[in-house]
Amino acid sequence: MSPPAAGAASSGEAPPRELYTIPASSGWFRWDEIHETERRALPEFFGGAGGSGFGTASRNPRIYREYRDYIISKYREDPSRRLTFTEVRKALVGDVTLLRKLFAFLDASGLINFSASPSRPAPQKKPDAEAILEAPVGLQVTPRPPASYFVEERGGGGGENGFRLPPLTSYSDVFGEWAPGRGPICGFCGEECSDGSVQTLKDGFKVCSNCYANDESTGEANKHLGDKKERADNHASSAWSDAETLVLLEGVLKHGDDWDLISQHVRTKNRSECIARLIQLPFGEHMLGTINGKSDSKLHKNQTTERKVDKYIVKESSSQPTETVDGMQIDENKNDTDKSNEERPTKHRRLFSSIDPTVSLMEKLVLLTTSSSPDVVAAAADAAIKALGNENPLARKAFHLSEKEYRTRAFSSICARQGDGIVGGQDAEMLGHSVPGNKKGKMFISTTYQVRAAVATALGVAAARAKMLANQEEREMELLMASIIETQAPSFFCMLMSMTSCKLDDSANGPA
Amino acid sequence: MKTVSLGANRPSAVKFRMPTRDNLVPIRVDVEVDGQRYRDAFTWNPSDPDSEIISFAKRTAKDLKLPANFVPQMLHSIQGQLAEFRSYEGEEMQIREKIVPLKIDLRINNTVIRDQFLWDIGNLDSDPEEFARTLCDDLNITDPEVGPAIAVSIREQLYEIASQSVSAMREARVSKKGRRAPEFASNSKAMHNSLDLFKYFGSKGSVVRKRKEWYLYEPVVDVARKEEVGAIDATEELSSRNA
What we know:
Chain B: Belongs to the SNF5 family. The complex is a heterodimer. In chain A, about 55% of the residues lie in helices and about 0% in strands. Chain A is an all-alpha fold. Chain A starts with about 35 loop residues before the first helix and ends with a helix. The relative contact order of chain A is 0.05. Chain B is of the alpha+beta class. In chain B, about 45% of the residues lie in helices and about 20% in strands. In chain B, α1 runs antiparallel to α2 (about 70-90).
């Protein structure tokens, strides 16, 4: 940068000379002259294309110099800030288009804004590095879902009374602690890869270099969806297109819970991707619940056929309150209720299972009763027995309850248990082998009552649960309404105020 | 009112067109159907085929989710304005350097902008869009709808001035006042609009404005709060209905 000519304007005074550093390329500039460059760039001021004339009254060299000098002096008042056209045009008389052209010329030739900070940058583009990190359309890096997810999956099936829903995933579950801006996460060890160590395997996995090295040695098998190894979950897959999603949904409806079949159906995605995608869909959880419900009833059927006795289920469910009322360890029933306290899947699950005609009445009743806590079940059983007892004195006999016991309101759960236990026991007896004839009649009657009691219990439980859900919904609605009102209130009030002032103005001006 | 003789400032006659670099027509649409209102302002290239208008109207209605009965009215409005433009097109107009003050007084979404500046309607190289762009950049206006609205407003004012001069000429010709009359007429009519150039550009004047007048030619931008926007909308509508 060459030191310039003096900074003083062309006035007569002699202020202390300030040195301005101007770009070498504009060294031709002189305050008291108009350079050839200027003439060529702005011919309008100089009488046309030739630049040698004197222009018109409003566009001539004298005027040009006034404009130019003003702008440059204005800039030099504070060389560090960027002078904008809008600032100068308010002080200059003349066509803005022409002034704009002049300003642009000065800017381009380095006579102004040469040491100012650069102008506002263009809309931020993502730096290249981020293109990799942020994984646009083509890539999707997902860390390993929580390990429990797949354990649940495989744990399902026989031995459990109800199918265990995998814990519903939240954003943080699916994406772990990954946030935009962090490095890619290795598909195998789930850790952030330090820059430059990302390797891409054949399948499109992104792995850190350590795992890459290990993988090389262990070979192909690890890359497949081993049940044993959960790394398979981290397939860096392509984005789901609409067609693929459609095929996935078809597969789910057709194959239900069998993810292998589903992933075969959707040829381009592996099973973990299918599962992940289903969860991400807005109704995915419902579908999962549906699927589970279906297999649920299948499960019960299996159990039934195993044990060959319907009524045993009643016994089992009724024995469960026993266990849990003692407040002991988490047993299967408790797990059932815990999981089934998650609302919507359960709702749908129930719906589906009750529609299935192959399930026996007792099974359905059992399903209903397991939807609430054992205390509720016990209370419902109490109420049911009591109500039946009210109906018909025979019922009381069937339940082997003394008058006294019956009248006491404090139906302890023991009684209920006894009642149920007796129910169960009698069923067992009945379905056992030969039954003495004279007892048969009684047995028959009592069985009816037992059935009715069971039905009533189930209904009671369902009703209790429904009420609970309804209350919840109502609270939710209230909350939402409140938040809506809260958001709308300020704008509403503002409008009100302005309307009021409007009205006042009108009435003030009106009659006048 | 003296006629300014500015030496080489001779009017030249050109075919009517927008006195800007791009010959784009400002179009303003304000359609109301069944209580729904569609207001819009944009620029149109008059050399586009008319079939474009229909597809534009349909696409706009679809994008804004307007019912289909908006389209005929939109169409009618746009075609009408274009036809008016085209009716001037055959005429000649005088192009001479004439600096007029243009005003901006707009509210776009929640940005209010008021401004005044000088524009040479004889400068066929002018570019309202570029001016609007510079203005928004310099004032750090982030709302992308502001720039185009300013450009359309400028064009509308230019269009009005240009069409006025053409119709003035037409009148003068009709009234058979002779050749010199048009110049006079257009001069005198426009005098109160255009700048008294002599004052500024004459030998004793200065093109640098006095500081105390700067505020007149400075843009004023105001950004309303979110809640206020609804109120402002409503009051405007009220006043426009009453007026």
